Amino acid sequence: MGAVVLHDAVWLLPADPTTREAFEWLAEEIEQQGGTAFTWEGLSSDAAQAQAIVRRFQAQADARYAEIVDSASELSRLAVRMRPVNEPRLHQIRRRLVGLDRAIRLERRRDYFRSPARIATEQAVGDALAELDRRLERQPVRAAR
Questions:
Q1: How confident is the model at residue 49, as a pLDDT?
Q2: In this predicted structure, what is the pLDDT of residue 40?
Q3: CA pair distance 55, 27, nearest whole angstrom
Q4: Distance, CA of 67 to CA of 52 (rounded, Å)
Q5: What is the pLDDT of residue 73?
Q6: What residue segments make up the domains of the chain, in order of their start?
Q7: How far apart are CA 137 and CA 131, in angstroms?
């Protein structure tokens, strides 16, 4: 969901129909398991506090995007350093990069305040996929036996 912990067991999400429904569903699940959960909406009475909360959401999104970029960079390094070239392994790396592309799409749903890191992350994964595809295209075609 991308919620931010405010204090102990107090979690925050921006108020919109999607997050409201997700929180209500989660509260219902907790209660069905014998726990207690409350959902409520609140407004910050201070603009500085509201901005601090937005920065916390953005920092969490930035960290998740950075993990994706790090993974894409590591996969690219593995592909470049591969000697001799192992085509099945390159395809495996490609599948993992496609998985990172899916991770970006999932992260966009949790990136409520549109982190600037999203664009750079999409670019990094896209570049890694494009470079790997070029490398795969350069592989000699083997005759079937």
A1: 92
A2: 84
A3: 26
A4: 23
A5: 97
A6: 1-42, 46-145
A7: 10
* CB neighbour list of residue 118: distance below 8 Å, 6 or more residues apart: 61, 65, 104, 107, 108, 111
DSSP the chain: ---EEEETTEEE---SHHHHHHHHHHHHHHHHTT----------S-HHHHHHHHHHHHHHHHHHHHHHHHHHHHHHHHHHH-SS--HHHHHHHHHHHHHHHHHHHHHHHH-TT--THHHHHHHHHHHHHHHHHHHHHTSPPPPP-
Token reading at 28: 């219902």
Q: What angle do CA 101, 102, 103 make, to 5 degrees?
A: 90
| pTM (predicted TM-score) | 0.81
Within the chain, which residues score under 50 in pLDDT?
none
Task: Scan for tokens 């014998």, then name that residue.
Answer: 34
Place of tokens 């005759």: 143
pLDDT for the residue 145: 53
What pLDDT, on a 0 to 100 scale, did the predictor assign at position 96?
Answer: 98
